[in-house]
Design a protein that fits this description.
InterPro entries: CobQ/CobB/MinD/ParA_Nub-bd_dom, DNA_Partitioning_ATPase, P-loop_NTPase
Structural class: alpha/beta
Radius of gyration: 16 Å
CATH class: Alpha Beta
CATH topology: Rossmann fold
CATH superfamily: P-loop containing nucleotide triphosphate hydrolases
Protein name: AAA family ATPase
Pfam families: CbiA
Organism: Herbaspirillum chlorophenolicum
Oligomer: single chain
Number of domains: 1
CATH architecture: 3-Layer(aba) Sandwich
Number of strands: 6
Order of helices and strands: EHEHEHEHHEHEHH
Helix content: 25-40%
Strand content: 15-25%
Distance between the termini: 16 Å
């Protein structure tokens, strides 16, 4: 059962946007998907509460302050949304569960500086170096043709972590989230450009270890 962790210790970088839409993709493929939320703000849980009953089902779990619950029976895919400031034992416990870690990152110098220690920590993690956990970075709210994207690439190149793609700054995500929906819950023609931007991220997520 693949467990995809969406993590960045900086707040406001798009973790919930990435995790909810990834869960929506898995649900659209007919998988039994669980969207876990260990963020104290419980953003993913609040989003699930407004998800329409006719939308493809996405489940969740109950978590305490000190424990990450296991997924219930019938779950085939897990997407785990994590809080800002994730570090220490909580990060270690989360990584023990993870098959892949997606790091959303905005290309401003402030976001890069706030995230660089976390990315170095991931790159140096034994399980990452041994290929047991895959780590990929997604540029959020960015145009791949801009200097900001080049700046992001220059920083990431030194860490030997892949930039999987870039998701543009669009109201599509905001408007869909407000209704508990994802890109995969509406007609593809309405969000074609966004679906195209997601494709390399999905290819990476679906790729098995050693594949």
């Amino acid at each position: 059962m693949p467990v995809i962790v969406v993590a960045n210790p900086k707040g406001g970088v798009g973790k919930s946007t990435l995790s909810t839409n990834l869960a929506g993709y898995f649900a659209s493929r007919g998988h039994g998907v669980l969207l876990g939320d260990i963020d104290r703000q419980q953003s993913a849980r609040a989003w699930l509460a407004i998800r329409p009953p006719e939308a493809r089902p996405i489940t969740t779990w109950e978590v305490s302050e000190d424990n990450i619950a296991k997924p219930p029976k019938g779950t085939s895919h897990v997407v785990l949304d994590t809080p800002a400031g994730l570090h220490g034992w909580r990060l270690n416990d989360t990584l023990k569960m993870a098959d892949k870690v997606l790091v959303p990152l905005q290309p401003s110098i402030f976001d890069i500086l706030a995230t660089q220690d976390f990315l170095r920590r991931l790159a140096d993690e034994k399980s990452v170096r041994n290929g047991e956990i895959d780590v990929g970075i997604v540029g959020m709210r960015v145009d791949a043709r801009t200097r900001s994207a080049e700046q992001l690439h220059r920083f990431i190149d030194g860490l030997k972590l892949p930039v999987l793609g870039y998701l543009r700054d669009t109201q599509n995500y905001v408007q869909l989230a407000a209704h508990g929906l994802t890109l995969w819950d509406i007609a593809p023609s309405r969000v074609q450009r966004d679906l195209e931007q997601w494709q390399p991220v999905l290819d990476w997520v679906e790729k098995k270890h050693g594949g």
